[in-house]
Amino acid sequence: MTGQDPLIRLADELGHLGRRLEAVGLELRNVGTAVPTKDSAATVAARVAAARSAAAQAETAPAEAAPHASEQTGPTAQGASQQSASQQSAGQQGAGQQSASQQGATQQKGAGQQGAQRGPSTPAYGQQAAFAQPNPARPNPAQHPAQPNPAQPNPAQPNPAQPNPTQANPVRPNPAQPDAAWHGWHGPPPPQQAPWAAHPVTPQPQGPSLFDRLSQPGAGSKLLAWVGGAVTLLGVVLLLILAVQRGYLGPLPRVVGGAVLGAALVGIALRLHRSETSRTGAFAVAATGFAVLYLDVVAATSIYSYLPEGGGLAAGLVVAAAGLLLAMRWDSAAFAIGVVGACAVCAPILTEGFTPLLVAFLLVLKLAASPIHLKRDWPSLAVTAGVPPLLATILTIGRTDDPRVLSGVALLAAVVGVAAAVLTVRVRPGDVTALGLAVGSPMPALLTTVVLDKYWAAGLAGVIAVMMLALWAVGRRDLPTAFTAGVGGVGVFALFVSTAIVLEGSTRAAIVLAEALVLAFLARQLRSRGPLIGSVVFGAFGFVMTVEDAVPPRLLLQQPWRLVSDGALVAGLLTALVLGLLAIALPWAAVRLDVLGRHPLPWIGIGLVVLYAAAGVVLCGALLVSQSVTGFVFGHSIVTVSWTVAALVLLVRGIDVRSLRVAGLVLVGAAVAKLLLFDLARLDGIARVIAFIGAGLVLLTAGTRYAKLVATRRISAN
């Protein structure tokens, strides 16, 4: 055994100790990072004790492991020699001039103690053992046993032992987990995150049912209070009615008694409201008192005539405003709704049905509730105050013979409702009730036109149209889009109603189509789809009117068997002309607004409308010249030739545009089909000759010219 054997044994023992410490570190790491289970503390303590016992056994391992290490391959011995040489150099640096054997023994003892004490916390020792490679550039002292190993001090960078990873039975680290020594130096590993789970959708809580509301504490007292108020109010109404029928008391005591009862109820409510526990009853009593006062004013105006209509409306406005202001001060929506609802329900009983005076009193309630609705977001109050006047206006239709009264009441209801809606939407842009009132308020006025005279009805619808369209034009930039769209739609509908009422006969279609044409240009200039929708609606109605009356298909297909007035022919010519212009302007605006795409079906319909309009213009013009068979035949000849010319224009313009080229070819086919199917059967004599020769020459010229243009374009392209 040479002097190098102790060093080899020491290196092998240190490598064995490193592997043991690495196994202990892995075990500790698995214990520390394991998912918490139901293991007891004793089990964990037993695992730690087993790990410490394994470390102690590794420290006291027998030295007989050295022969096994000496039998390893060259790289293993080389790594051990390098480790021994570096440790010997370190020993010579600290202890002075000693022999190699004494230094090796001293290093063996010191390294054993140091490895036992610092093994678990040695920086990245296991990592070096697993990944370090031997350095082939440095000489191996084990290859020259006869030469002593000179000391090579290097105090700056000591060379630690680098065991070969190809040793027998190495401890392989888990590739999915970091090294145990790395955890010993850098602390415990980060906790493993649970897999991502979708955020649970919280179900929306459902509102309480009717049974739950009735079973709540205090619900019984509220119900009793409001039912008592309703019964009291109904009793007052019955008293006023029965007093008239049975002669109880005089007219003046009845009115004074109702006023005293209402004032007493209001005073009691004011006193009850001072107590926190009595406020529920105070709301019901106050609503009953103000309703009694309002109905007393209605009875004094409509039944007993103690007050003129204007004075009664003013007094009712004061009473309703006082009650609603008190409701706003007490911040009770139920109080406000109770006042308005009770007055609206009971007022028709005192006015003996639905009359213009009833509508006026209901509008007074609407006027009184509008400022409250602006201050408080109470949609129920807006509906309760806004719907009764509209229903009463509709039910009043046919109950009066004075058109001025009926028109005035309907117009007043529309103005009040729209004004309240505008004020509300400025304060709360997202209020849906404002949109409903703006759209619904003018409807009773438009329904009133059914029973009015022609000019009264047209004037009323015209005023509504002007009001709504002006509101749309002014508020298009400031008001919400949905609100202005609804207002504009009502205005367009009112304009159509006014036009349909004031005009008669064939001129009605021309005016409606002209309005559609104006709306199309307006949509193009304003870049707004609202006028475009109105243009489409007006155009559809105008086309139906044109086909039914102004330019019917029989005028184009049948020879005239009776004379048509010149006025009707002029109206038909103008109607067909406007229809053709609309058929061109409407898709132009739609394409500009990115509404109409490239689908062929709409374009086919537009093309057919244009052909129908062109035929109507030509036939009406020809019949104006002569309403005989000659005029009819001559007109159809011109129609055939004009279709052919239009096809030629489309083909020339469509050399580079496929859609125009296809349209031109389709129109050529339509012209040829008309020539063979209609002209050949309907035309006679020289007209048939003119139609065939003219169409043939145009087609021949078109084909020749078109072929030349295509060839020239190809040559220039090449």
Automatic annotation (TrEMBL):
Domain of life: Bacteria
Start-end of Low complexity biased regions: 51-117, 127-146
Residue numbers spanned by region Disordered: 51-214
Entry annotated with the keyword Coiled coil: no
Keyword Transport attributed: no
Biased composition (Pro residues): 147-163
Pfam hit, one: DUF2339
Annotated transmembrane regions: 223-245, 251-270, 282-304, 310-327, 334-351, 381-399, 405-425, 456-475, 482-501, 507-523, 530-547, 567-591, 603-625, 631-652, 659-677, 689-707
Keywords annotated in UniProt: Membrane, Transmembrane, Transmembrane helix
PANTHER family: BLL2549 PROTEIN
The name this protein goes by in its record: Putative membrane protein
Source organism: Saccharothrix tamanrassetensis
